Amino acid sequence: MRHSAVDDLVAKHVPENAYPEQWDTKGLREELKRILDLDLPVDEWAKEEGIADEELLSRIERRADEHMAAKVAQWGADVMRYVEKSILLQTLDHLWREHLVMLEHLRQVIGLRGYGQRDPLNEYKAESFNLFEAMSAHLREAVSSQLMRVEIRAAPPLAATRPVPAARARNTSTAMGGSLRQTTERIVRWLSQSRLIVSSRRRSDFRSRWRARSARHR
User: Fold this and answer.
1) Residue 125 and residue 101: Cα distance in Å, rounded?
2) Is residue 205 a part of any domain in this protein?
3) Is residue 151 left, alpha or beta, with left meaning phi > 0 and alpha meaning psi from -120 to 50?
4) More confident residue, 135 or 169
5) Residue 175: is its pLDDT beyond 80?
6) Domain span at residue 134?
7) Where are the alpha helices (DSSP H) in the chain?
8) What is the rounded CA–CA span in Å between residue 16 and residue 7?
9) Taking the alpha carbons of 139, 1, 83, 68 in that order, is the dihedral positive or negative?
10) CA angle 6–8–12, rounded 5-degree value
11) Does 181 reside within a domain?
12) Mind listing the pLDDT tens digit for each residue in 30-47?
């Protein structure tokens, strides 16, 4: 993908079968700095005798590969592979959503092409293909730009993490303990009240039966 982005940049500023004097070296150098964060002496390379566009392309790709190889050597292949996958998926998701919105807008207005004696279906196919090509080029450029600029920061070790203050820990435990204690007291109080109600009911039933029994013996 990175090489494809470089190919697009070179093809944009270096016309095919053109002499080095006709190359847009200034624009190419600015684009390389803006997109790939590479400051390369493209204008000096163009002045070399016998330089060709293939040689220019090869030099730019080699410098880009060296830049990424340094990141891989610093952080490891597995880490960089994970970073590349994450950036690719996030960028693709964002661009694909925009692409679907643009296709919906195109579908709503493509019928107007019929007034110009053109087939709306064929027009829609051509326009949607152009939109997809533009999205693909934007994806290559955006992912390559982010990967060339990405900086990975190692997480601090566990021992260096800031401990929870003792007062805060005590307050937290006290609050939790107080809440638990209050809940327990409410449950005990409710059970006690329930037992008292049951006991009072039992005493009342016992008194009623005793009075009825005494009345019969009289």
Assistant:
1) 16
2) yes
3) beta
4) 135
5) no
6) 2-149
7) 2-13, 25-36, 42-46, 53-75, 77-109, 120-149, 166-217
8) 12
9) negative
10) 120
11) no
12) 999 999 989 999 989 988
Question: Is residue 200 domain-shared with residue 140, that is, in the same domain?
Answer: no
pLDDT at 132: 94
Least confident of 63-72, 146-155, 166-175: 166-175
User: Is 178 inside a domain boundary?
Assistant: no
Q: Is the pLDDT of residue 199 over 50?
A: no
Count of structural domains within the chain? 2
Q: For 135-158, give the DSSP string.
A: HHHHHHHHHHHHHHH----PPPPG
Identify the pLDDT of residue 198: 41
Residues in the chain: 218
Does residue 91 sit in the same domain as residue 141?
yes
Q: Determine, yes or no, domain membership for 179.
A: no
Question: Can you tell me the mean pLDDT for 195-212?
Answer: 48
The answer to whether the beta carbons of residues 150 and 71 sit under 8 Å apart is yes
Residues 122 and 217 in one domain: no
Task: Flag whether the pTM goes above 0.85.
Answer: no
Q: Are residues 66 and 14 in the same domain?
A: yes
